[in-house]
Structures are given as C-alpha cells and as structure tokens.
C-alpha cells in the first residue's frame, strides 16, 4: 500500500469528520460485513430540491471500512440523490486510491452498499448495488 494513501485512510479512521447520527433523518440504513465484523449505519437529511442536505455515518470495524464511510459521506453532501444512486465501486476506490483484494473490497464497499440501499429505500442491501 502506498504510504500517502495509507495515511489518508488512517487519518479518516482516527479523526472522522462525519461520524455521528442525524436525528431527525429522512433516510437511515445499517448493515454488517460479517467477513470482517464491520458495521456501518448511515443517516441522511434530504432537501426539498432532492439533494443530500446532511449526512453522517456511525459504526465500528476496520480502518478501511470506517475511512471509506467518512470519505463517502463527505463526498455526497450537497449532491442530488439521483447522482448518489449512480455511484459505484469506482467512486470509493478513487477516493481510497489503493488496490484492494476481494476481502478488503467488502470492507471498502460496505458504506456504499448501506448508502444505496437507504437511498433506494430497499429492505436489505445486496452486493449488486456496488458493482
Ligand atoms: Zn473490514
């Protein structure tokens, strides 16, 4: 792993800017990655114009899962929900800037899976959301 990117991940893991829980919220979803023990909950407030007014994540798990969630939440505030629905794994991988094996990829993509399941109003999150 490249040192610069590793530092970014550790910084977001140790000092997340968007950790928390919005109450009230318009969208809430949570899920686990059983392979690693990661848990992520995302809460969103939406604006009347269909954009993300504010967002937070909460949870626990490995550095990649938590740093990805912080980066993801930061990247969607102010964005149209329609745009959020189109996000795929490249968005996360671009922000992390590292190559990940299949196990770590699950960690990295958990927050996106949770976010998209919430925005789409699904009962459960599936891996196909982040392909
Ligand atoms: Zn993990």
Strand content: 15-25%
Provide the CATH topology. Sufe protein. Chain: A
- What structural category do the secondary elements indicate? alpha+beta
Bound molecules: zinc ion
Order of helices and strands: HEEEHHHH
Give an overview of the whole structure.
45% of the residues lie in helices and 19% in strands. With 131 residues, it is α+β, with helices and mostly antiparallel strands. The protein has a single domain (2-119), classed as Sufe protein. Chain: A (Alpha-Beta Complex), CATH 3.90.1010.10. Helix 1 packs across helix 2 (63-76) and helix 2 (63-76) crosses helix 4. The mean pLDDT is 94. It binds zinc ion (ZN).
Task: Please summarize what this structure is.
The chain is of the alpha+beta class.
Key descriptive features of the protein:
3-stranded antiparallel beta sheet, globular, 131 residues, alpha+beta, 5 helices, 45% helix, Sufe protein. Chain: A, binds zinc ion
Topology:
Elements: H1 3-14, E1 27-33, E2 38-46, E3 52-60, H2 63-76, H3 81-86, H4 89-96, H5 102-120
Antiparallel strand pairs: 1-2, 2-3
Bound molecules: zinc ion.
């Amino acid at each position: 792993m490249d040192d610069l990117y590793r530092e970014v991940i550790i910084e977001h893991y140790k000092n997340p800017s968007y950790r928390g829980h919005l109450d009230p919220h318009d969208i809430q979803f949570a899920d686990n990655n059983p392979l690693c023990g990661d848990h992520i909950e995302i809460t969103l407030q939406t604006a009347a114009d269909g954009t993300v007014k504010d967002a937070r994540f909460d949870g626990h798990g490995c550095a990649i899962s938590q740093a990805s969630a912080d980066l993801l939440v930061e990247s969607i505030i102010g964005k149209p929900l329609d745009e959020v629905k189109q996000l795929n794994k490249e968005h996360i991988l671009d922000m992390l800037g590292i190559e990940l094996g299949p196990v770590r990829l699950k960690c990295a993509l958990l927050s996106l899976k949770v976010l998209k399941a919430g925005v789409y109003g699904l009962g459960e999150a599936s891996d196909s959301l982040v392909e």
